[in-house]
Amino acid sequence: MIPRTAIPKGVRVFTPEETARRRAVEGKLLSVFQRWGFREIITPTFEYLEVFEQPTGEDAGDQIFKFVDRQTGRLLALRVDITPQVARLVATTLRQAPLPLRLAYAATVFRYHEPRAGRQREFEQIGVELIGLDRPEADAEMIAMAVEGCQAAGLRAFQIDVGQAEVVRGLLNALQPAPAVRSRIVSAIRRKDPLELDLLLQEVPGDPGLLETLRALPQLYGGREILDQAARLHFPPASRAALANLAEVVTILENYEVAEHVILDLAEGHAFEYYTGVVFGAFARGLGYQLASGGRYDHLIGQFDYPCPAIGFTFDLERVLAALAAAESLPEVSGPDVLLIDFSPDKRAAHRLARLLRDRGLAVARDIIKRDLAGSLAYAKASAIRRAVILGSAEQPPETVLVHDLVTGTRRTLPLGAFVQTVAQGDSPWEI
Amino acid sequence: MIPRTAIPKGVRVFTPEETARRRAVEGKLLSVFQRWGFREIITPTFEYLEVFEQPTGEDAGDQIFKFVDRQTGRLLALRVDITPQVARLVATTLRQAPLPLRLAYAATVFRYHEPRAGRQREFEQIGVELIGLDRPEADAEMIAMAVEGCQAAGLRAFQIDVGQAEVVRGLLNALQPAPAVRSRIVSAIRRKDPLELDLLLQEVPGDPGLLETLRALPQLYGGREILDQAARLHFPPASRAALANLAEVVTILENYEVAEHVILDLAEGHAFEYYTGVVFGAFARGLGYQLASGGRYDHLIGQFDYPCPAIGFTFDLERVLAALAAAESLPEVSGPDVLLIDFSPDKRAAHRLARLLRDRGLAVARDIIKRDLAGSLAYAKASAIRRAVILGSAEQPPETVLVHDLVTGTRRTLPLGAFVQTVAQGDSPWEI
User: Fold this and answer.
1) Does the distance separating the beta carbons of B13 and A41 come in below 8 Å?
2) Interchain CB distance below 8 Å, A42 and B18
3) For the residues A120-146, what does the mean pLDDT come to?
4) What total number of domains does chain A contain?
5) Which end of chain B has fewer beta carbons closer than 10 Å to its terminal beta carbon, N or C?
């Protein structure tokens, strides 16, 4: 018997402190997106399963929470990925909208994977899609925004690993290994495992130059110079075009003055089957997981019968928060600004003062429980409230306000009239 | 065969315009809550079914979206109501937190009811819970916040209907009608159907004075004077205590100077089995549905083994938006502030100018597609972008900025240096 208070594995309730931190980081990321001209959309929490049943590179099918629609008998699925929902929106409601479209979202997605560090079964993605452009300028815009997002979130030491899905795909298409071997090769390249890769490639017949290039890929990781190293290797035309595309993107990123955060990684083929061009991931120093990831997916919207190139990426909020925690850079949060305590029997002065302070934007909780001043102050302190504003206590003359700063422990008694006037003028009442 | 673009009944995708309106109203409501000292929490989208399987007055069981947890085989349920989740949080994680607790939330809930005007199967609730106080001050705080929420959302003509669940419950407990008759009586009282009520009460034996009071209840609707009218009727002690409680709440609401928005309704017993005291609902003039509803539920948290009084209420965002639409008071929204168009081959000036404008808080989309100026301006206009800022076009001298206002159609050419300096100083570049 599970107690009624039990919470299912992999989901969480967030306390006021945790929620304030989440909203702070979410707001900073959405603000970056908004200032780059991206507009938020909202998608439904569940869909017909078919919307998500597409090759996504990851084996999403097993991860989907499914249930039966009681009325139609059809299978519904909790949102496992927001990008297909955006693709469907673009192909239907927004089909007549002028391109490019810049869309943003912040929403939780649901996956049945095993909970592990920074990964829940319900977790929030905060991302963007830039739709209708297949130019390197679009790729560079995404990567520059990922850099700015990391900075806005408060991360100091981070890097963006940038690859191009078509580099590896071009090589494999030219070599044509058996499908089972192919996926093991991809995995070995991504894990940068030269021994495993070498063993696998011994079984693959084909152009020795191309095989040599595949063997070299895990080492092609670094600054712009690795594109020069790559130029000396043997590539099929599709891979060469991908390298040329990557070089263009890097040039634009240099113009953006963000190239210092970018590491090229020719072995990067993240979520391989999904992406069709530039792919990238953001990492915090010393942490092995991606805080953000994305790439170009020029064929997805076409699956909704509206062929249209697109690129997008998303921050994983749980991982960003974990990275901020590891760097001791979580945003500081606190309780309401003021606990307003009124001991006089007629509470009208408290009502008016509360309204004035709130109109000024301050968060004012009223102490409407009956207790003594010491009790009220202990409550304020335990509730992370910065200041108590006290009316009508035995410790102050009539027509005064007693301001008790709970952080410094200092107290000041001020004339009620002057206090009210200061607040009404829009000035800070703490600096009278 | 349902097309892959189909959306399940009762859920929606919101376009950028719709989303901006939702976020605007949501932000205004959350801001009211925050300024009253309430702190947001986040609850999971699904729970073990048991969390929601409690008497809620409404027959929630049939409305719940259920599915099986693949690993435990237990039934999970999509969030049908946030209050039980808050109750569980208070009884567990926050059990040691000092009382009262002021908690807020904004989240979607899921109900299998038939979609009708302003009601979806996934819809957003924006609400608060005030936990740990059973005093009329707490009830009044909730109602005053409901008034302020309506005002902040932009509603002009609205009222809050306030009742007390124990008035009707006290009468019925004294009369003890058969359970089936009892629920029909409650329904007839709520619908203010005197004929039906009269027919039902003819079957009920008991004190004629109490029966007479029940018959009179649907007429007890109006200002404070109905409490005087009620004082002349025959009530059992529990109902009298409820009326005295209501009178205290009204007195405090008069002190809050919000009584003009309040209508007393002694027939109100909203979601009867759930609530244990004051109940209320917000209505817009001319619309028959509640924009917000709530009440006191002193027994719910106790079901999670932590007896604790509480009162809460929630706005239904879809209905608030419908009321704003009916009153032609929806918030105005627009696209990004600026489309930045750069025809020069080297885009570094555009990158820097975009960064400057964004640092100033402006939403700046860059036109990174290759097209002529007329095409770019048509795009800006269709995308609801207010201004185009143009660099390097054939229509302007070098080292200038051409500012094209798409609303007024006016154009100005400004020296690039002066424009940059104005923005860098934090002044508006539109008023040079």
Assistant:
1) yes
2) yes
3) 97
4) 2
5) N
Does residue B369 form part of some domain?
yes
- Interatomic CA distance for residues B359 and A292, integer angstroms: 23
The H-assigned helical ranges of B256-340 are: 317-326
- Mean pLDDT value across residues B335-356: 93
- Contacts with B256 from chain A: Cβ below 8 Å: 351
Give the model confidence (pLDDT) of A335-363 as tens digits: 999 999 999 988 889 999 999 999 999 99
Chain A residues touching B99 at Cβ < 8 A: 369
Percent of chain B having pLDDT more than 90?
Answer: 81
Cβ contacts of A318 within 8 Å, gap of 6 or more? A118, A119, A120, A123, A124
Q: What mean pLDDT comes out for the span A258-280?
A: 86
B76 contacts on A by Cβ (under 8 Å): 8
Confidence of residue B57 (pLDDT cuts 50, 70, 90): very low
Report the pLDDT value the prediction gives residue A115, as an integer from 0 to 100.
61
Q: Which domain holds residue A350?
A: 338-431
The ipTM, to two decimals, is 0.94
Q: What is the pTM assigned to this prediction?
A: 0.95
Q: For residue B257, give how far its alpha carbon lies from the nearest alpha carbon of chain A (Å).
A: 9
CB distance A39–B335 less than 8 Å?
A: yes
Radius of gyration of chain A from Cα atoms? 28
Statement to judge: residues A215 and A80 lie in one domain: yes
A382 and A306 in a common domain: no
B9 is a domain residue: no
Q: Does the distance separating the beta carbons of B103 and A16 come in below 8 Å?
A: yes
Dihedral (CA of A290, A295, A301, A302) sign: negative
Place of tokens 């298409």: A173
pLDDT at B56 over 50: no
What's the one-letter identity of residue B379?
A: Y
Using alpha carbons, select from B147, B138, B133, B163 the residue that is nearest to residue B272: B163
A308 and A344 together in one domain: no
A344-351 long-range contacts (CB < 8 A, ≥24 apart) are A344/A391, A344/A392, A346/B255, A347/B137, A347/B252, A347/B255, A348/B255, A349/A391, A349/A392, A349/A416, A350/A391, A351/B255, A351/B256, A351/B257
Predicted pLDDT at B61: 66
